[in-house]
Amino acid sequence: MKSKMPKIPTEKKPIYKRKWFIVLAVIVVLVILGNVFGSGDEKEKTAKSNEPVASEKVASSKSKASSESKVSTESKASSENKESKASEPAEESVTAHMAKEDNVPAEYKSALRAAERYSDRMHMSKAGIYDQLTSEYGENFPAEAAQYAIDNLQADYNYNALKSAESYNKTLHMSKAALYDQLVSEYGSQFTAEEAQYAVDNLEADYNENALAKAKAYRDMDMSNNAIYDQLISEYGEQFTPEEAQYAIDHLDA
Q1: R_g of the chain, CA atoms, integer Å
Q2: Among 212, 210, 182, which Cα is nearest to 196's?
Q3: What is the C-alpha separation between 42 and 46, in angstroms, rounded?
Q4: DSSP structure string for 124-140
Q5: What gap in Å lies between CA 111 and CA 130, rounded to an integer?
Q6: At what angle do helices 126-134 and 143-152 cross, to 10 degrees?
């Protein structure tokens, strides 16, 4: 009778050494590696896809800056051209004026200098200066030379009229009305009505004292007070107002 051999128990392998576990582990590792590298590729693709956008933004910014610079340069150039053109007429005007002066006859220039003296020293009117320049008893310039002088003389005739009125007031003690008549008279100063009016309106004068000075002069002529009064207010005489004439009579013997 055969004897039975005892069974030797087989040693179980650890789970990590089993084939199915190793295959599963390899698959998991491959999946993990695939995810890692796949994510890296996606990030790289995303970065690359973003690069053209950034590049486009930079290019757009450069283009805009270039455009603005171009516009600014063109605007500046246009402004400089306008300034240059604006200054050209002034330069041409000065040149033309100098050329014009070079063509002026010497006698015309002499007439202008004489007119300036009459205006500055004697404060004459435009008509008075012209008459003095052309008079045979004056400068005796030709009419053309005198007209050139008048046309080119820089004078303030309002001021001249006022200075003439001051002179009449100081030396002749005239009334306001008499001063006006003297300033506009063709036998007097020959100022315009506007210039004469400016003068009497701006003259600082004491017409009461002027009337008194005239009354004293008439008293020296042995005139009566009534006659003096009449002479002071007469339109053919001194042309003072009744109030000014009465002031003179009242103070005549003071």
Answers
A1: 56
A2: 182
A3: 6
A4: --HHHHHHHHH-TTTT-
A5: 10
A6: 150
Residue 183 neighbours by CB under 8 Å, 6+ apart: 161, 164, 165, 168, 189, 191, 195, 196, 199, 200
The residue behind tokens 């002066």 is: 101
Rounded (10°) CA dihedral 114, 118, 121, 125: -150
**pLDDT tens digits, the chain, 254 residues: what are they?**
444 444 444 455 555 555 555 666 666 556 555 654 555 555 444 444 444 444 444 444 555 545 555 545 555 555 555 555 444 545 545 445 445 677 999 999 999 999 999 999 999 999 999 999 999 999 999 999 999 999 999 999 999 999 999 999 999 999 999 999 999 999 999 999 999 999 999 999 999 999 999 999 999 999 999 999 999 999 999 999 999 999 999 999 87
What b/e sequence results for 9-42 when a residue is b if at least 16 CB atoms lie within 10 Å of its CB, and e otherwise? Answer: eeeeeeeeeeeeeeeeeeeeeeeeeeeeeeeeee
What backbone phi and psi angles, to 5 degrees, belong to 31?
-65, -45
Rounded Cα distance between 149 and 116, Å, is 8
What is d(CA 249, CA 236) in angstroms, rounded to the nearest whole number? 19
Q: Which amino acid is at 184?
A: V
Which amino acid belongs to residue 76?
K
Tokens read off for 107? 């006698």
